[in-house]
Amino acid sequence: MIYGLFFGFCVIAYLCGSVNFAIITTKAFTGGDVRSSGSGNAGMTNVMRTAGFLPGVITFFGDYIKAIAAVALGKYILPELAKRWIPDLSAETLAILPIYGALFAGFFCLLGHMFPIFYGFRGGKGIVTAAGTMVVLDWRLFLIELGIFAVLFLITRIISVGSILAAICYPLTAWICFFVMNPVEEVNRLAAQADVAVHAKWFIPIATGCAALLVVYKHKDNIRRLFKGEEKQLKLKKNK
Q1: What radius of gyration, in Å, describes the C-alpha atoms of the chain?
Q2: CA–CA distances in Å: residue 45 to residues 10, 50, 90, 160
Q3: Based on the number of CB atoms within 10 Å of its own CB, is 15 exposed (0-12), middle (13-18) or buried (19 or more)?
């Protein structure tokens, strides 16, 4: 039963991620497909470059909120349903379910954003979607990752540099927030203190590491251009 619940929530998270606001917003503002312009990526940065600032902002909030919604379902609703429908679950298992639910939902939402079923499996690179996942996991995790991104972007003015290095740091910052710093949210504290938390200590860096690998993989063209010195700085297109 618990595996069926996880499967159902992973499908929901994937479908949430597959709603690509870069494609929707650019179509509404310009009538075109953002994947046919600029870098060809269905993400906020390419929307800002090709359609303008306002469409880029709408894309940002759309991708951000869909991730928050998907991960919140996995973190809060899945454990409640498990508690009601599977009464023989141990207290330790119930304690770690929110973290497992959040990480599974976050990963599949990210997968949907990158490979959306509604748009021929051609989506974005997942930075904003990953940020929404971090906010629900632990707001301090989000702030640390945002700080890493912001510093590198301000130095280079290249979004991909901040995105790639923040993704690489993701497993480490997640470990620090859950098992070095004192978790600020009760469900996170229960998960870190549970008798079966040893599994979470392995699962959290593995799950966040898989998400980081996906993000880095989707930035492979950016990495190639960075090594060649051809990666462009962010310049916004003015709305007409």
Answers
A1: 18
A2: 27, 9, 45, 9
A3: middle
**Cα–Cα dist 210/195, whole Å:** 25
Q: Which helix (H) or strand (E) is 138 found in, with range?
A: none
Residue with tokens 């008798």: 195
120: left (phi over 0), alpha (psi -120 to 50) or beta: left
Report which DSSP code applies to 183: P
User: 46 with 40: CB under 8 angstroms?
Assistant: yes
Contacts 24+ apart (CB under 8 A), 186-194: 187/75, 187/76, 187/79, 187/95, 187/98, 187/99, 188/98, 188/99, 188/137, 188/138, 190/95, 190/96, 190/98, 191/95, 191/96, 191/98, 191/99, 193/95, 194/91, 194/92, 194/95, 194/96
**What is the value of pTM for the model shown?**
0.90
For residue 183, which phi and psi values (nearest 5 degrees)?
A: -55, 135
CB of 109 closer than 8 Å to CB of 133? yes
pLDDT digits 0-9 by tens, 43-91: 888 898 888 899 999 999 999 999 999 999 999 999 999 988 888 887 7
